[in-house]
Amino acid sequence: RQSTNHQSSMEVAMEALGKGFDLTSDFRLRFAKGSQRLVVLDEVNKRDLLIPPTGVTIKAVSQDIRVDKGDRIRFKSDVLEFNQMSELLNQKCSIQGKVPSGYLNAIFDLTGDWFHDAADTKYLAFDGYFISLYYLHLTTSSLELQDHVKMAVPPHWDPASLA
């Protein structure tokens, strides 16, 4: 039974690779957006992929997907004001700016109304472990957007015309 759970979890994780996330939400798998990937993967050259810690084999996986052994990492912060914590978490996620992402909301169980959350929150800190069994990742060196994504994105950034 445990093998079936691992296989199901792996298949869900593989389906999320290359999909988008709404930064105002969370980065967990259940928040992956859309039914299609945003980037092109090699769907012709496939192989069976063995997941080392579980012994589970996933059939017909794109060669653009790899799995590596996970690890245990301790994440710890200083005691910070709301805006400082928001900026710290954004930096760790490679996001510019101080406007909080959904990641901050999820970690500290905030409402998402960042103006009021900031006013109601004096200081924040975290100290915990992130334990992963494995890492799934895309191996293509240069990601190419799917055609439907290219068509949906305007060629020039003009906020007034998008409003």
From TrEMBL:
Protein name: MACPF domain-containing protein
Lineage: Eukaryota, Viridiplantae, Streptophyta, Embryophyta, Tracheophyta
Coiled coil, from the record: none
Species in which this protein is naturally found: Citrus sinensis (Sweet orange)
One BP term from GO: regulation of salicylic acid mediated signaling pathway
